[in-house]
Amino acid sequence: MGATQPFDHPHIFIDMGAADEKICPYCSTLYRYNNLLQHDQTNPIGCAYHSDSSNVS
């Protein structure tokens, strides 16, 4: 997210498996599982991405 095509970050699924942390293979961002967050919460607040399903073909 952030940059526009063709310079944007690839949208990929990172399988956490049983791990609590994973590093993105493209940008090296560390993703850490937080079991205190609800399914619709983010930290920092407001960082969830919601796709517009009307644009999906």
TrEMBL record:
Every Zinc finger CHCC-type domain range: 2-31
A Pfam family reported for this protein in Swiss-Prot or TrEMBL: zf-CHCC
InterPro entries from the UniProt entry: Znf_CHCC
Protein name, as recorded: Zinc finger CHCC-type domain-containing protein
Organism name: Bartonella ancashensis
